[in-house]
Write a structure and sequence with these properties.
The complex is a heterodimer of chains A (172) and B (341). Chain A has 172 residues and is α+β, with helices and mostly antiparallel strands. Chain A has five helices and six strands. Chain B has a five-stranded antiparallel β-sheet. Chain B has a three-stranded parallel β-sheet with strand order 1-3-2, covered by helices on one side. A three-stranded antiparallel β-sheet of chain B has the order 9-10-11, with helices on both faces. Classes of the chains: A alpha+beta (172), B alpha+beta (341). The complex binds flavin-adenine dinucleotide (FAD) and FE2/S2 (inorganic) cluster (FES) (2 copies).
């Protein structure tokens, strides 16, 4: 990677892998990843709640790890792989977590939902949650003003159980 | 946010040179504290020096003396779940998992956590006076809303607290901070890294201009506390809130008696609060509530409460006794099941 200095008025070209596709964009220094997604790339699935790392509505996966996109600078994302809510489905086939949220009615207004789902997908991958208590604690970075929490935990438990079933089948 | 230029450093030397070239520059790592403060115009750096691409600062490894070196860029999540840390220094894992959220811990780095600023409401509001933000402008917290403010070590100028959970465990474990600067490298004991506000609350740490943190070292000796520890964090919500009071307790048990002890508090002062006298009164004593209360008395001696935070003195006293009994029993506070046993 080349050494770069960027003045406030400069724009810099960065390349990110966004939902599996390479994207080249020009950004200035102060643009956050969240604003890049929503304002420059018109991917409005990722939501802005607080813009200060407090609500989790802006959660995306960066190199597979869940993070608050409102507290990331776009210039610092050069070369990274970013997955947003728009990138979870495979064509018309919803991601298992998206399906579980629908089946369990795990939302009301839906504003927090993209962040909840991205966060939940990462939580399952991380493998540190083994009980409802632990799911709740490890989902504490996603606030839901509608209070859909019990159904969100149900949805996540469903996906975790489904995955355990698949592993068992694969092992047999 | 103010306008700023951006520089991507590729080495520690490169970052130091960029720091030296511009007194208004700031390092950025995870960005979770700095960008938050920039959005409030509390921090207005002329230039950001991106240190995240520097190689060699993102690993955890054993030192030749059996201690552990944590690179400044290692994420808080990686530290918490790393086998060398969760086995040898579980107090540190527990304290980190008590703080923030998975998303923030994934982004937050060791060096950034160490250097995060206070969560004082007045510090955060650029329209109001604050001696930490603007030296000499005054401290509205003294007579204002001071629920999350200091009860120990405060000054006439500032009653802010240091908000980190990780740092409280590091203080109890006797960690040291490795620093690089224009004069070369040096090591600062954790006890000396953060400072009391005294007459210059604008300075949180003893890091001097032009220096950066390269790593945090845990001494091999602190592994002797791995069996008997607890990090007890009390806050306004069960999750995702800064500590009103937190206690990091580490004991080495000698049968029913205490062989050795380390004790530090968070949320009560401008730095993790530790007094070796409070640890000395524990050594050789039976592990019971009377002993623990004596240590709490010593650790809290001189505590001063204000309108909204006076309750923290009694809260801290009880939390110390509880955390020490959890440590003695070998039943550390769970960070997911919040019931306090
Ligand atoms: C909503 C919210 C809740 C939170 N809750 C908690 C909590 O409960 N407990 C807790 O402990 N923390 C909590 N945090 C704070 C979080 O832990 C810090 O924001 C994080 O640790 C900072 O790390 P960073 O890498 O993102 O730092 P940055 O934001 O990148 O940097 C922070 C500061 O450190 C400096 N810095 C960074 N790296 C270095 C280095 N190597 N050498 C010298 N200086 C450096 C920067 O210049 C800057 O001044 C919370 C944060 C948020 C936003
Ligand atoms: S918008 Fe990023 S956490 Fe709220
Ligand atoms: S569904 Fe409305 S905020 Fe969560």
């Amino acid at each position: 990677m080349t050494l770069r200095t960027l003045a406030p008025d400069d724009k810099i070209g960065i390349t990110i892998s966004l939902n599996g596709r390479p994207v080249q964009v020009e950004v200035d220094t102060a643009t956050t990843l969240l604003d890049l997604l929503r304002n420059h790339l018109a991917l409005t699935g990722t939501k802005k709640g607080c813009d200060h790392g407090q609500c989790g509505a802006c959660t995306v996966l960066i190199d597979g790890e869940r993070m608050n996109s409102c507290l990331k600078l776009a210039v610092m994302m050069d070369g990274r792989e970013i997955t947003t809510i728009e990138g979870l489905a495979e064509g018309d086939e919803l991601h298992p977590m998206q399906r579980a949220f629908i089946e369990r009615d795990a939302f009301q207004c839906g504003y927090c939902t993209p962040g909840q789902i991205c966060s939940a997908v990462a939580l399952v991958e991380e493998g540190h949650a083994h009980s409802r208590e632990q799911i709740r604690e490890l989902m504490s970075g996603n606030i839901c003003r509608c209070g859909a929490y019990p159904n969100i935990v149900d949805a996540i438990e469903d996906v975790m159980a489904e995955r355990r079933g698949q592993f068992r089948e694969a092992a047999e | 946010m103010n306008r700023f230029s951006y520089f991507r450093a590729e080495s520690v030397e490169g970052a130091l040179a960029a720091l030296a070239a511009d007194p208004g520059a700031k390092l950025i790592a995870g960005g979770t504290n700095l960008l938050d403060l920039m959005k409030y115009d509390v921090e207005q750096p002329s230039r950001l020096i991106d240190i995240t691409q520097i190689e060699g600062l993102d690993t955890i490894g054993e030192t030749t003396t059996g201690g552990i070196m944590i690179g400044a860029l290692v994420s808080n999540t990686t530290i918490a779940y790393h086998p060398l840390i969760s086995a040898g220094f579980p107090l540190l894992s527990s304290a980190i998992l008590a703080g923030a959220t998975p998303q923030l811990r994934n982004a937050a780095t060791a060096g950034g956590n160490l250097n995060q600023r206070t969560r004082c409401y007045y510090f955060y509001d650029a329209a109001l006076p604050c001696n930490k933000r603007e030296p000499g402008s005054g401290c509205p917290a003294m007579e204002g809303v001071n629920r999350n403010h200091a009860i120990l070590g405060a000054s006439e100028q500032c009653i802010a607290t240091h908000p980190s959970d990780m740092c409280v465990a590091l203080a109890a474990l006797g960690a040291s901070v490795h620093v690089a600067g224009p004069e070369g490298q040096r090591t600062i004991a954790m006890a000396d890294y953060h400072r009391l506000p005294n007459g210059s609350p604008e300075r949180d740490t003893t890091l001097v201009a032009g220096e950066m943190v390269t790593g945090i070292e845990l001494p091999a000796g602190a592994k002797r506390f791995a069996e008997h520890h607890s990090y007890l964090k009390l806050r306004d919500r069960l999750s995702y809130a800064f500590a009103l009071v937190s206690v990091a307790a580490s004991l080495q048990m000698d049968g029913r008696a205490i062989g050795d002890a380390r004790l530090a508090l968070g949320g009560v002062a401008h730095k993790p609060w530790r007094r070796t006298q409070a640890e000395e009164v524990l050594i050789g004593r039976p592990a019971d509530d009377e002993t623990f209360a004596t240590a709490a008395d010593v650790l809290l001696e001189g505590a001063h409460g204000r309108e909204h935070n006076a309750f923290k003195i009694e809260l801290a006293h009880r939390a110390i006794v509880r955390a020490l009994s959890q440590a003695a029993a070998g039943t550390p506070q769970s960070q997911s099941d919040k019931r306090i046993a």
